[in-house]
Amino acid sequence: MHAVQLRTGYKDVPISAPAGGTTPDGVAYTYEANDASVGDLDGDILGDWREEVVWRASGNTALRIYSTPIETTTKITTLLHDPMYRTGLAWQNTAYNQPPHTSFFIGNNMPTAPRPTVYTP
């Protein structure tokens, strides 16, 4: 079981790793991970602070990125600018897969997120 936050609170919903199959839009996918319990990669790769999961398509023809369709009004710097989160995203593919964590609190009533100390040209 996995708790999912909804607008009305928390709800337990069963989560199981798919063995592979077809998405609702008819695209075939394959599910494999180094620890057999999570997607190939999960994290904030699109830069809106919400996390996506990346799975490969059947036959290794494409990468499929799954994200939420729900809009947000919360604006913070992309999580990849946080050195702790960036390191956490990297260790997913080099060691036992654990979710990346930020160096600051993210949640209800959070203070303003710190300005990043990492800049890219």
TrEMBL record:
A matching Pfam family: RGL11_C
Coiled coil: none
Domain Rhamnogalacturonan lyase family 11 C-terminal: 43-116
Superkingdom per UniProt: Bacteria
InterPro entries tied to this protein: RGL11 (IPR034641), RGL11_C (IPR049366)
Protein name: Rhamnogalacturonan lyase family 11 C-terminal domain-containing protein
